[in-house]
Amino acid sequence: IKQQVGVIGLAVMGKNLALNIADHGYSVSVYNRSAQKTDELLKEAQGKNLIGTYSLEEFVESLETPRKIIMMVKAGDAVDATIKNLLPLISKGDILMDGGNSYYKDTIRRSRELEEKGYHFLGTGISGGEEGARRGPAIMPGGEEEAYRMLEPVLTDISAKVDNEPCCTYIGKNGAGHFVKMVHNGIEYADMQLICEAYLIMKKVIGLTPPEFHEVFKEWNKGELNSYLIDITADIFTKQDPNTGQYLVDLILDVAGQKGTGKWTGQISLDLGVPTPTITTAVYERYLSSMKEERVNASKVLKGPENLDKKSKDFTEAVRRALYASKICSYAQGFGLMREASEQFGWDLKLGDIAKIFRGGCIIRAQFLNHIMSAYDKNHKLVNLLLEDYFKDIVGQYQMEWREVVKQAISAGIPTPAFSSALAYYDSYRSKELPMNLLQAQRDYFGAHTYQRIDMDGIYHTKW
Ligand code: NDP
Questions:
Q1: CB-based contacts of 77: which residues, under 8 Å, 6+ apart?
Q2: Which of 148, 189, 255, 464 sits at a 20 to 30 Å CA gap from 52?
Q3: Ligand 1 centroid from CA 79, angstroms
Q4: Which of 10, 13, 180, 188 to mutate to test the pocket of ligand 1 (most atoms within 8 A of CB)?
Q5: CA 130 / ligand 1 centre spacing (Å)
Q6: Are strands 165-166 and 161-162 parallel, antiparallel or unpaired?
Q7: pLDDT, position 308
Q8: Which of 188, 224, 285, 401 is the catalytic position?
Q9: How confident is the model at residue 258 (pLDDT cuts 50, 70, 90)?
């Protein structure tokens, strides 16, 4: 008797997904390039219907057909190498799912190559990190719908649930699942950057201490900002270093790491011509953070404002409002990017369903996604989230405090590029008039690029 599901790649994600699948009553075979990880998992999986295999031949042989194989190997060449090694062993009609953070263009290529040969390929985004993989992640499957339907019971069973509904839904053809996962990560970058800017403002302007930050974020988590990231942020401020007794957050080097999905989101938004300034700025700020030595040197020579205008604790409410308004703009950008990609790649993305599955399991899970879900439920053609009543009203209500917070940060010399870029996005988007009349004149002046007029039809060029 053969196993129902196979998992290849047993690092953090693959190992925990395999355990999760087994816990839901499926029989599982696992394989990892190096045997040690397989051995470790088998020790942990005692008593579960999970068997280890030590060659791809043995792995493929152990699975019932059509085979359902989930790859959780490192994104990039490892996926191609694994597919190449599997191809001589598997049969037409088998389903290969890549559950890693693959680049969506690679997924489009792999789908085409595998589907031409008669195999099914699902490029699937999975979010939730280690804990999500083990207890229930958000799952974004892309590929042929028919192939998804065959794996659907497994994926919906292992996914997170919100209101008893799985955080897993068919996203669209070929690269759609990985594209949506990438945008999820881009939004995650912006969410994190915005929270960090709120922290910096409150640290510098109010002078909050870690225990006070814990209280503030705990309070925020009870309201509109209720989300996983705010929750863990509150928690972070409680951790003390056992050796020094200091708060751990104050001992961590301010240099941010990254694995590339935020960068891709920025690159693609440029390719597709969709403004995502808040998301992209969050990526830039990680780059800037990594220039630590340069920053330390510059801090000695470049001048900032002399006096800091201190604020009382009441100012935290203005910061909270600025954070929420900025967050709305960042999601408007991310969903705008998905909307355009859907058009250009013919994916027919259901943005309301995407907001719905983001509500559980993944890193950006938040109460606030309910509003995005209902915005698209009401009007699936909504061109920008900012135009929907709930968002329009709340941003309108909070905008003066938002401006006040950005003003405070600017006059104190505190870098808050995500807050500022979100506000600039809001102000540009709501501007009937932008200064591009002058820009068009400049283009026509030096390059004869022509311009249109507001008072007459036609294309014009002037000898300036
Ligand atoms: P890693 O990305 O660190 O990848 C390690 C795994 O890939 C190991 O099993 C390794 O095998 C295997 N591998 C690497 N190169 C090859 C190769 N050439 N051929 C065969 N196997 C290879 O593991 P993670 O579990 O962190 O992530 C898996 C995927 O999920 C990645 O795409 C990642 O981006 C994505 N992801 C990760 C999240 C996380 O929180 N970690 C969250 C969401 C998605 P070996 O043991 O032999 O080296």
A1: none
A2: 148
A3: 9
A4: 13
A5: 12
A6: antiparallel
A7: 80
A8: 188
A9: confident
Q: Ligand 1 centroid vs 348 CA: distance in angstroms?
A: 30
Query: Mean pLDDT across the stretch 17-26?
Result: 98
Q: Where are the beta strands (DSSP E) in 62-162?
A: 68-71, 95-98, 120-127, 138-143, 161-162
- Model ipTM value: 0.98
CATH 1.10.1040.10 assigned to 181-429? yes
Is residue 252 helix, strand or coil? Answer: coil
Q: What residue ranges do the domains of the chain occupy?
A: 5-174, 181-429, 437-464
Q: Is 224 a catalytic residue?
A: no
* Residues in Cβ contact with 443 at an 8 Å cutoff, skipping those fewer than 6 apart: 449, 451
Which CATH number is 437-464 given? 1.20.5.320
Catalytic, out of 37, 173, 181, 327? 181
Q: What residues are in contact with ligand 1 under a 6 Å CB criterion?
A: 9-14, 32-34, 37, 72-75, 78, 81-82, 100-101, 126-127, 129-130
**CA 51 – CA 49 distance, rounded (Å):** 7
Residue 280 is encoded by which pair of tokens? 């992209």
304: helix, strand or coil: coil
Using alpha carbons, list the distances in angstroms from residue 384 to 341, 417, 454: 14, 22, 26
Cα 425 off chain centre by:
20
> Which residues have a Cβ under 8 Å from the Cβ of 149 and sit 6 or more positions away?
none
Q: For the domain 5-174, what is the CATH superfamily, name and number? A: NAD(P)-binding Rossmann-like Domain (3.40.50.720)
Assign 365 to helix, strand or coil: coil
Inter-residue contact 227 to 367 (CB < 8 Å):
yes
- For ligand 1, atom 17, the nearest C-alpha belongs to 78
CA of 96 to the centre of ligand 1 (A): 16
- 90-133: per-residue pLDDT in tens? 999 999 999 999 999 999 999 999 999 999 999 999 999 999 99
Inform me whether the pLDDT recorded for 334 exceeds 90.
yes
Largest CA distance in the chain: 83
401 classed as catalytic: no
**Can you say how many angstroms the Cα of residue 2 is from the centroid of all Cα atoms in its chain?**
37
Residue 14 pLDDT exceeds 90:
yes
Alpha-helical (H) ranges within 302-363 are 315-345, 351-357
What's the full length of the chain, in residues? 464
Q: Which two tokens stand for residue 108?
A: 């489009």
